[in-house]
Predict the structure.
Amino acid sequence: MSRGAGRHLVLITGGLLVVVVFAAALLAPLLAPREHSSQTLERRLESPSAEHPLGLDELGRDILSRLLWGARVSLGVGLAVVVLAGGLGTLIGAVAGFVGGRIDGVLMRLCDVVLAFPGILLAIALVAVLGPALRHVVVALVLIGWVSYARLVRGQVLQLRELEFVVAARAGGYPPLRILWRHLLPNVLPVLTVQASLGMAGAVLAEASLSFLGLGIQPPTPSWGAMIDAGRSHLLDAPHLALFPGLAILLTVMGLNFLGDGLVDYLDPRQRRLYERSG
Amino acid sequence: MTAYLLRRLAFVLLIGLLVATLVFSLVHLIPGDPVEIMLGDSAQRSDVEALRRDLGLDQSLGRQYVAFMAGLARGDLGRSIHFRQPVTRLLLDHYPATLELALASMVVALLVAVPLGILAALRRNGAVDHGSRFLALLGVSMPNFWLGPMLILLFAIQFDMFPVSGRSGPLSLVLPAVTLGTALAGLLTRMIRSALGEELHRGYLQTARAKGLGRLWAVVRHAFRNASIPVVTVVGLQFGTLLTGAIITETIFAWPGLGRLIIQAIHLRDYPLVQGGVLAIALSYVMINLLTDLTYAALDPRIRLEKSA
């Protein structure tokens, strides 16, 4: 498949967006023009101005500052879910693919079971009973998120373990764990990166959804999803309340999806080379 | 086929049991006393005890489980605390609205995805292909709970074309269906494009062209049919996802379906209703996935041979 300018454009756009959002989250204390929770009630719902570039919310708080601080929540949850679900899934997938046999069968049935549940509903139900808190959101999203990593890694390991360099390592008498760690996992890393990028997009969106439903992080900590929910009752008189947090989510999730999608194209030729080398 | 069917049915039965068990345990996952949480701090001691007896929470866990499963088998899911009605009744009342919304969203998604996907596959790496890729990624990245309010702002408030919320005739269905269908439209466009792309190089298409069929007609008539088998699967599986996605869309548009009912129940701490609603959607999801698998197996003999081997 030829790779036109459009393909790289997706990757570059995604990468830039992700860098900008991460920088915004990291530098929130420096960039935020106001204290994110300081209220100016008499100026509530004020439209964007030079002093408050994105306007003030229903309690007269600076929306730009709240967005910057909210980025920490969104990306924090996203990263935590990716690291935990990705780590757990990679471990399970690698063991299933490498060991095979009955253990593989059991682990894959477990994946089927988790996949048979509607993910976001499970997350909503869990957070609803456990109580709205950030750690419950992370737990729920990890419980439904690890499966895609496990299936991906297992598939890759199954393919890789028949390749000559792995067979050679085995013949060389290396212990299985070393082969897994030194020879297999580095080769799985590219596809894992793609999945992590797309998975983080999903996690950010899911966290925002739960916060929107009032099941995520609780006030006064700013969260993009909750900000949209608050803005919904002011669509008529102050649409900027819902508009800007939505754009923040959109740009973040889009950046991660673009990055993941662009990486697929970028990594494809490398994969082909891998097979050429083996054949 | 029979062996495959039996294996699938056994798996679905197992999943159904697991779903029911999980829903049963929801109430027991609540930190603290569920009855006191349901009734609030100001509740009378006697009311708390009465509700505890009503819900069977004074019984042993094993007994509660048996009673729950027996009730489920009879279609009895207890009574809603807030609405003071049988949960089953409430679920049946709200189910049609959710189904209607999910179906309409699927129609919206297909109306966008089929033409766009075909065009993108035919002109691979052309303007339509890149444009549709961008739109698809945009659609998938767009939060429902933002798209919905923005559509309301634009088409219900600015232009007054559709009602802001509620379920009152076909016009009120448009904005919720577009909101819920957008992400799926993006996904299906890319799916159709890649499934069709694989078929475009096959010999039968050359044959069809050689016998004089026009390019578009040959593609639509022959290649699209073959490409549609994987697409049917995705459509089926995604229909289940639409049912859960409806939770947020219904909340935005005050659409009187199951999803909104569940969220209301969560905020009212009406746990029997939460359990019933989650059970209804999860079981529907499982059944839809089963039907999709069976359809796929019926359409494509290779699948059932592969899986029963």
User: Anything to note?
Assistant: The two ends of chain A are 21 Å apart (CA to CA). Chain A has one domain: 3-24+77-278.
